Amino acid sequence: MPENYQTIIGLEIHVELGTKSKMFCHCQNPTSADFTESRDNPNSFVCPICLGHPGTLPIANKEAISRTIKVGLALNSEIAEFTKFDRKHYFYPDLPKGYQISQYDMPLVVGGELEITRRDNTTFKVYLIRIHLEEDAGKLVHPEGSSSSLVDLNRAGVPLMEVVTEPDITSAEDARLFLQELRLLMKYLGVSDADMEKGQMRCDANINIEILNSKPVRTPITEIKNLNSFRMVERALSVEAERQYQEWEDGGAIRQRKNKITVGWNDAAGKIIPQRTKEEANDYRYFPEPDLPPIKIKFEILNSKFEINSKSEIRKNETMVEIQSPNGSIEILSRDLPELPAERRKRYSSLSLSSADVDILVTNREKGDYFDKIIHEGDRSELVKKVASTIINELSDNSINPDNLRKFAELLLSGDISSKIGKDLLAAMLQEDKSPEIIMEEKGWKQLNDKSEIESIIDKVIVDNTKIVADYQSGKMVAIGFLIGAVMKESGGQANPKVAKEMLEIKLEVKRQK
Ligand code: ZN
Ligand code: MN
């Protein structure tokens, strides 16, 4: 952590929404999980609307609006009562219309916050400025060895949600943690896979630093465009913070410069690359999209037990959000929101699980859901821990029937089966959908509980391991583990380990006293 300066970071995140169809036309959305065609055929999922032909009329995608509102509700934002789309003009070969349909002064979602828990259980909060809805552009393809570039418009018109944060983030690592939590939230809400590697979530980062002199002073902002992985975000931001500080210390141009610069990031070189200077907002010549009617959003409180003082409170109550436009109306119930990552983290943390296990069960939602099917409220903590460690460390999928897995964990905990039988049993349970008791019966893995049989094995082990027995009896208590292991091995893993341990201890104690 640098002590000479404070890092100031704000993020702009674009998330492609995985709706069935595109934002303003009926074309299939190639980023949707339901997409069945090959994504490798360029310009195959296009129509006159997303190709930007003159005279075509866009129609707003209700599902995309509804998903954006869901995100706003989950982030405790205000949902606008009235919102509209605007045209943002710029020229680029992947944008045939010459403008992007976006939202300028009346975004769908305003404000909001996300609290993030770091690994060491400290937390920080990031406030949001806005979330608006727009459309993605196409893609330029540069074939190797060719002197010309090609345009693929499959992506043109894909619904794009843009989240803009306040400059609240104070380290490159926190920026990564925020993005990871935001991604998790998108997945929990089911609005997008938000896979950065696939370009479904893309990040532009604004960074400057405050030099902590007797009179603190701030450097001008650098906007780093198109950071396409969590690792890249963290690396680029820490490199740029340090670079700004060095330039300042060296008395460079950064001391005089006032304007923001826009740069790219060369990951291989680990360096920023200068780009065009940023257009002022009015260069885009925003104006209201004349082909799309504005949208009215109505809130209806369904549960009158609560009084709502501000719209940011609607999520906590039973509220219906109804969106009305000439295209039809959409209804969202705030109680339809699933349990969110932060809520789940809190719930698991109260279960005496390690923070590493909590993290895995929250980040891997499917595993968490599976865990919830096995564990019941009020379960004792050994069982909870055993179930968690089994599904985290022993199982690569969640295919075992939850009731059977619960029985399995109970058998292991009671000491009724050895860990060796446990391993075989788990493998067998993955093969066939049967209860652990039935599998043990069928495989002849009956636990050896007969004390006289165990005793004769113990006697043999004591004779075979005189040195270790002597170690134990001279006070090296850990040696008992080796002896229990030997008993288990001698019995083919079938001796009841609990019984074996008890008998072994008594025997060695008696021997010592003799
Ligand atoms: Zn289309
Ligand atoms: Mn944008």
SSE blueprint:
Layout (H helix, E strand, L loop, with lengths): L4 E12 L45 H13 L3 E2 L2 E2 L2 E4 L9 E4 L6 E2 L2 E5 L5 E13 L3 E3 L8 E3 L6 E7 L6 H18 L11 E11 L5 E2 L3 E6 L2 H20 L11 E6 L4 E4 L12 E2 L6 E7 L17 E7 L2 E6 L7 H9 L5 H9 L1 H10 L6 H14 L7 H12 L5 H13 L4 H8 L7 H14 L1 H8 L5 H12 L6 H17 L1
Parallel strand pairs: 14-15
Antiparallel strand pairs: 1-11, 1-12, 2-6, 3-18, 4-5, 4-17, 6-8, 7-8, 8-11, 9-10, 12-13, 12-14, 15-16, 18-19, 19-20
Helix pairs in contact: 2-3, 4-5, 5-6, 6-8, 7-8, 11-13, 11-14, 12-13, 13-14
The structure holds zinc ion and manganese (II) ion.
The site of manganese (II) ion has 3 residues, from loops.
Question: Can you offer a commentary on this structure?
Answer:
With 514 residues, the chain is of the alpha+beta class. The protein is 34% helix and 21% strand. The protein has 14 helices and 20 strands. It has helices at residues 62-74, 172-189, 230-249, 341-349, 355-363, 365-374, 381-394, 402-413, 419-431, 436-443, 451-464, 466-473, 479-490, 497-513; strands at residues 5-16, 78-79, 82-83, 86-89, 99-102, 109-110, 113-117, 123-135, 139-141, 150-152, 159-165, 201-211, 217-218, 222-227, 261-266, 271-274, 287-288, 295-301, 319-325, 328-333. The strands form 4 sheets. Strands 1, 2, 6, 7, 8, 11, 12, 13, 14, 15 and 16 form an 11-stranded mixed sheet that branches. Strand 15 and strand 16 (271-274) form a beta hairpin. Helix 12 packs antiparallel against helix 13 (479-490). The protein is elongated. 34% of the residues are buried. The mean pLDDT is 89. The chain binds zinc ion (ZN) and manganese (II) ion (MN). Zinc ion binds next to loops. The site of manganese (II) ion has 3 residues, from loops.
